[in-house]
Amino acid sequence: EDKVVQSPLSLVVHEGDTVTLNCSYEVTNFRSLLWYKQEKKAPTFLFMLTSSGIEKKSGRLSSILDKKELSSILNITATQTGDSAIYLCAPHRNAGGTSYGKLTFGQGTILTVHP
Amino acid sequence: DGGITQSPKYLFRKEGQNVTLSCEQNLNHDAMYWYRQDPGQGLRLIYYSQIVNDFQKGDIAEGYSVSREKKESFPLTVTSAQKNPTAFYLCASTRDSYGYTFGSGTRLTVV
User: Fold this and answer.
1) C-alpha Rg value of chain B to the nearest Å
2) Are A56 and A62 in contact (CB under 8 A)?
């Protein structure tokens, strides 16, 4: 059975702080790991990681995958109130014998950034 | 603009009643997915379909049913057998191995 664990489950910080969110996974037929940000409704895509040790960056956000340790981290520097959201990691794996596969989501980290 | 439309945004169900949540996409995506999200939780896969007229159970399929008669549509029925249906339901689609697009969700409440 696939297993995805995110930590911490919730985090409260002040603007300007740096945060690190963790994701560990156990899935069969692993392809990649995706990070999403969910504010009110639909999750929005942040990163897709396929190779170990290669950092992906987008502004103040960055993420890296460690396939040996079956884990990933998401860093947010100089946090802003607009970063308040649920952050979801989702390993993507093969499923159903086609090319589409499926995502298994972790329970998410609720990040709250105070002014 | 292409996207996924879920309707209704809010839905109230009485005990013992079946309800159907709509999911329509005009992205020409082959694969579609239904997820359930409980408060403060991640998303759990209910059903998915990778081709018309075919679908597979996800991790929490009990009490739910789906159909995929058209590529654009993947409705989810929450049956009376689902004992705790109050949740936020998200539909997603993808054309390839990556790039999942999500709908805005339906919030279902049992009254």
Assistant:
1) 13
2) yes
CB-based contacts of A111, cutoff 8 Å, min separation 6: A10, A11, A13, A19, A21, A76, A79, A83, A84, A85, A86, A87
Size of interface A-B (CB pairs under 8 A): 67
* Cα angle A53, A11, B37; round to 5: 85
CA–CA distance, B109 with A87 (Å, rounded to integer): 24
User: Which residue type does B14 have?
Assistant: K
Backbone angles phi, psi at B39, to 5 degrees: -55, 130
Q: Is cis: bond before A8, omega within 30 of 0?
A: yes
The nearest CA of chain B is from the CA of A102 a distance in Å of 8
Give the number of other Cβ atoms within 10 Å of residue A3's Cβ: 12
The β-bridge partners of B44 are B36
Q: What pLDDT, on the 0 to 100 scale, is given for residue B95?
A: 81
- Interchain CB contact of A110 with B (< 8 Å): yes
| Per-residue model confidence (pLDDT) at position B28 | 92
CA angle A1, A37, A50 (to 5 degrees): 55
Give the pLDDT confidence of A52-69 residue by residue, as tens digits.
Answer: 999 999 999 999 999 999
Residue B82 CA, distance from chain mean position: 14
Query: Residue B97: its chain A contacts at CB < 8 A?
Result: 31-32, 92, 99-101
- Percentage above 70 pLDDT, chain A: 96
